[in-house]
Amino acid sequence: MRPRLRDDVYFAPVSDGVAWLSGSGSLKLSGASIATVVERLAPLLDGRNTLEDLTSSLSAEHREMVTNLITLLVERGMADDADHDRARVRIDRYRTGRALVIGPRETTGECVRALLRSGVREVVPTCEFDPDLLNEADFVLHVFGHADIPSACRTTRLAHDLGLPFIHALVSENHALIRFPSGSDWASVWRRLRPTDAEALRTASGPPAPPALQVLANHLAFRLSCQVARLPGGDDDQILWFDAHTLAVSRHHVLPAAVLPADRSDGAEPESREAFRRSIRRLQHVPRWSAEDFSLRVVRAIDARFGLIRLLDEGDLEQVPLRRSRAVVAHDVTVSSYGRDFATARHRTAMRAVAAHGALAVDPQRLHHGGGPPRRWGLRLTDGEPCLVDAREAHPVLGSDGRLVPVGATAGLDWEQAMTTGLLAHVRRAVLAGASPLSGTRVDLDAVNGDHVSAGHLRLLTAAGYEVGLVDLGDSIRVPTVTGVLDGRVVEVVSRLSVAEALRDALEALVYAAQAEEPVSALTEVRPRHGVWRPQVDVTVSDVVEALQRIGLTPVFVPYDHDPALERIVPCIGGVVMTHG
User: Fold this and answer.
1) Checking DSSP bridges between strand 175-179 and strand 166-171, what pairing results, if any?
2) 333: how many CB neighbours lie within 10 A of its CB?
3) Whole-model pTM?
4) How confident is the model at residue 230 (pLDDT cuts 50, 70, 90)?
């Protein structure tokens, strides 16, 4: 609201307040300080200041007084809202403007009729894109099929350069995608779109049947009018999905996608060594995010049609005693996790989903090629130096298995958390790949009673009649590693930076194994050694790197930076891969 005193309104101080007079009547306001307030406020009521501008610097008491005064003046007809006049001017601009409609004949005909019905006086239809026509237009409506996306991209660039309002609609027989100027570019929209939807838009040529086409045309005319008049509903950073069968319109957020070299004219080359160093330094110094930061950001990545994560929910999974969650990423790969509460389960699942997407969303055109397998820059964690590694280690999608999420795929709220998760995954794999059967010292179960979470898991399992065992395997690699045994079966091996964490998470894994509906098979055999259990000392990330190096493995971190949207969701994401020697 931009309050403005009418031209025929006058006011004057009186003995106990201030009196107002206008052609619509008179008004008297009483109060010791009201005359002073009015004298200061009246010159500002010229339609240029919003109500928020006028009151933002005032105390709560004075803000309420000024707001009530302005509201009363508007109700009595002594002031009005200048925004209303501006809206009327913009609506008149729409009605008197020239609309350019681009698209197939049968579609543009219906759009022309809809625009004329909405009040536009002049509409110019054309079946062929002609840049010269844009110079003579005041606003544009472009309707096209999948094959004409390049033409729509040209329209976008030219309309932006000319400052023209426009609406785009990618139309097929069954659906339409509606895009506004502030929305994601068409290249991103098409790359993010679910493959089944993309195939439907690609193959179902032709416009919708007449009743649906009329509704769609009216909807486009309405959206265009709102945009020209700057009314709500006229501009959006979301994509609208129109269903020609149900006539329903849904909103979808589309994160920007990578710009492929084929789309660029700068002759971009694969990342250089120095550019890689700079990106790594940036990752290492990003302040740690909170779990709440991640939760707020990852929501924008979840969308059934366009999301990096297509689905994140609990579905029909059993939720007692642990909470369970699952996610489907854009490549139709499902990941899942569990936790003591829904927030924990969803957080863990979302982290795994983002890491899985990063591993699967590689752009082959950015890789280093030359006489061998494609390579990528990675950071050798033993000495902090860049090195080129086989890209298929970090991105199995480049090899024979396009749906495999590699061991070491990791996402973290900061650099250290991401490194910890990725490295410990390889410690676990190294332990499982070692001597068979596994050998370690049986853990004294009384040792978990000091941690109330671990003690609770143990009580739950024993009360349910399970035989529980924990075996410390850390001697083989000098990183706290515990295997959980349920009724004689090894159901999980857990590596952590501390013994307490390893014990707690191993017991939680046993609870999950007992809860899961699917059968849990033994990973391998374990033969506990005789002797007194002496817990492993806690370790650091550097200790884990040294432990892997002692068994002949060199860890290398490869950032998942092919998809620019990922850095908006999580601060550090990549894959820890192993080279030998």
Assistant:
1) antiparallel
2) 19
3) 0.82
4) confident
